[in-house]
Amino acid sequence: MSAAFSPALDKTARRVFPRHLIQVPLDLIVLRFGVPENLPGRCIDISEAGVGAVVAGEVPAGQQVAVEFRLPNLGVPVRTRALVRYQSQFRCGLEFVGLTVEQREMIRYWVHRSTFGADGWNKPATGGIAETSNAELPDPVADLPSRPRRRLRIARRTLFLLLTLILVLTGFAWWQWQRSWNELERQPLPSASKVRVPSDTINKRIVSKIEPEYPLAAQAAGAEGMVVLDAVIAPDGTVKSLRPVSGTDTLVRAASDAVRSWKFEPFLAAGQAVEVETTIAVEFRLH
Questions:
Q1: Which of 147, 170, 230, 267 is the most exposed place for a label (fewest CB within 10 A)?
Q2: Which residues contact 144 (CB under 8 A, 6 or more apart)?
Q3: Per-residue pLDDT tens digits for 150-180
Q4: 3-state SS class at 232
Q5: Would you identify the CATH topology of the domain 194-284?
Q6: CATH architecture of the domain with residue range 20-179
Q7: In DSSP terms, which residues pair with 87 in a beta bridge?
Q8: For the segment 43-59, what is each residue's pLDDT rounded down to a tens digit?
Q9: How many CA atoms, within 13 angstroms, populate the side-chain half-sphere of residue 179?
């Protein structure tokens, strides 16, 4: 697999959202000729607009992909679509496409948590807690007046309820996204259960054929001409149904009675016998 440089999709403006370093596994799903391919990788930075990643494969700029990763300390993974903005030496930039409000709030929550800590206070410098025993750690809540403490507890409960709601809505959004993505992945080929075959082709595949009887009433009336029938041939080569297209009623009945007994060589599509539609013409001439 080539790791050639893929230029950026376009010149983007200065980033609106700051990037935050992160090291978590990432899965990338790319559709190649309608077939999904899973490429493992790793997130290296993240923002509300997208992620930077190192991926074990080449994904050209402009390709739309599905991306899945799990933020640390959050139980629900983030699954969404993204647009490849650039790719170079297995490193690529992915811009989120269709990120839901719940997923964006999850990213914001993780950024806030990683920046300020789980309790909303600024993280101390490295070694500040490691050098102090648990008994010596100050309780920031206990040092606050009663009203601020109560507000802080309410804020924590509100955050917990909000996170629970986000998880529920994210699960529902994931279900909807998965259904939409499955429809995208299918991209079914044209149905091979019934195909249209030209009349000259089907005539070459006749195995057994009974010539129609010229009705005496039609001969006496001097009726002659071409009878055209639309036919459906079953996978086993028998005539499944007939529909008259042109011809007098007397001649159509005679032609239909004969054609129903015809046998054809089964028509194959992708190695399997399939039902086909065709046109059969029967000519009646007095002389």
A1: 147
A2: 152
A3: 777 888 888 888 888 888 888 888 888 777 7
A4: strand
A5: TolA/TonB C-terminal domain (3.30.2420)
A6: Beta Barrel (2.40)
A7: 6, 92
A8: 999 988 899 999 988 88
A9: 5
